[in-house]
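Incident log, structure service

09:12 report received: a user says their structure output differs between two submissions of the same chain.
09:20 pulled the input from the user's history:
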Amino acid sequence: TTLVRSAAFVCWPLLKHLMLEPRCPDIVTNCFTMTLKGLQKQGVHKLIIDAHLHLAFEIYKSLRPHYTELKDVMKQVLLIPSEDLNKFDETLLSPTVDNLDRKST
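09:34 re-ran on a clean worker, output below:
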């Protein structure tokens, strides 16, 4: 669990940088792929699954608007059906009143 926390701690500055300067799709897809693979491999441990799920969701939520490649990673690594992923993307990327309220605070 210490390793997972350390990895998540190291990832945040990188993710913030990539949100501000979107230009490295290979780095983003590699980081997201490794996070999902770590989740698959270590997901049986309660403390690890929580950290990995949070990190994977934050990566996708934060970087998906800039990097469409993340959608392909979800399909390839997690084998999510396209229809389900499209619904998730629509929900995540659509500017709802609730989402706008959260962003303004």
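09:41 both user submissions now match this output. Likely a transient worker issue. Closing.
09:42 reviewer note: The two ends are 31 Å apart (CA to CA). The helical segments are 2-20, 25-42, 46-63, 69-78, 82-93, 97-104.
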